[in-house]
Model the fold of this input.
Amino acid sequence: MSAPTALIELQTDAAALRAVTTDRSGWPGAVIPEAVFRPTEIAEVQQLIAWAHATGTAVVARGAGSGLAGAAVGLEGAVILDLSGLDRILDLDPDEQLARVQPGVITAELDAAASAHGLMYAPDPGSVGISTIGGNIATNAGGLRGAKYGVTRDHVLALDVVLADGTLVRVGRDTIKGVTGYDLVGLFTGSEGTLGIIVGATVRLIPRPVRTATAAAFFADVSTAAHAVTAITRSGARPAVLELVDGPTLGAIDLLEGTDLRSRGEAFLLIQTDGFGAEEELAVIVEAISELVTHVETATDAAASDRLLFARRRALPALEALGRALIEDIAVPRSRLVEAVERIGAIAAEEGVRIFVFGHAGDGNLHPIIVTEGATDAVIPPAAQSAADRIFALALELGGTITAEHGVGRLKREWARRELGADVHGLQLRLRALFDPQGILNPGSSL
Ligand SMILES: Cc1cc2nc3c(=O)[nH]c(=O)nc-3n(C[C@H](O)[C@H](O)[C@H](O)COP(=O)(O)OP(=O)(O)OC[C@H]3O[C@@H](n4cnc5c(N)ncnc54)[C@H](O)[C@@H]3O)c2cc1C
Done:
């Protein structure tokens, strides 16, 4: 492959290509791409895309490659557009409470920069320390603080996007409100690199809560913990964090981190309230679940609370350490959470596979993780695939979705078609063709 212009240097050495070939999903179909390009200027992105447009070359945008849907992966003949070098926070405006950032900024670094001004970037995926803002926007990432603060889309005001012919456009605006024209920010958010390349974003910042209060609640089983989520929802309190972890996942975290969480119960809710009334609100929650809980601990200081949040963030790496993890990401109406966890348990027993469950329970978002023997990219055994299909079917039956936050990627295309139905799926394909008539942006992924 020859360089598109004298200004653009494509990397083709084996180590560089290997580094961008897979994401964290363990999707086994990734192949070594043709080249990788790591721009440091927006003009370089435009040049690459204009060249790809002229030559019909496939381009796969990539942030940190922490995705769990097989989306930012190697494709035969494709250029991987690694945006991690566009990594500057351009402006952080405490009066307007917003930041203008490049896509390669690591999410936790933006939050830390906001913190210096008493502000917070609220979206907080478990991968906050490694994933990029661009990847978060392209997947509409959720996270631990979603119970109160929502998902990435709720915090994006404007985007700079390089379209599929190399044109640079700006959509949205730097004001809190604004409804002129269609919501193209909403359309690009969650578009998984199929409609354009995000090269800049204006994101909202909010006042950093003056205090937080955290509780670790343990239960006899995961079903009772799911009942407790309903009790918390009914209590009128609004936790910022409401995370569920089942006993087997606690055991895996203990194994990886040397903690002793599982000795305290067979299921765990991590609950955090924030703001001026944090302690009072947490007390309401603790009272609401008092008849369900076997053991509850309140974190007394920031370090203890950070340890609990860290332990929760280690859930996925802990399960990845046990074998080949097939990572699912369903959401159900919160009133169906109990039924969902119970039926996932039944599916595990019937299929004879190990299914671990954790997730953002406050959002009705569960991550059932099917762990089988073998390496990360080993072929998925039929029983595991059957269990995954039954979990997707369950999510739809309960009125939910097959992917709450990780995206469709290459892993869930068939089930996305089923969820959307023929008419809406067709409409979405026509939209995609409008933005990318040649189909050069992440072909074979998403819809
Ligand atoms: C331990 C762990 C915990 C996680 N926890 C969560 C969680 O709590 N919530 C959650 O939502 N996800 C979670 N994830 C998944 C993942 O981190 C998110 O999907 C994240 O948003 C991906 O960001 P990234 O920078 O790694 O993007 P990548 O994986 O590189 O890319 C993801 C998608 O975005 C596209 N893309 C990336 N950058 C751009 C760009 N600039 N323009 C256009 N398209 C682009 C890619 O083409 C691809 O389709 C977790 C992952 C891990 C490994």
In short: Residues 74 and 326 are 19 Å apart (CA to CA). The mean pLDDT is 96.
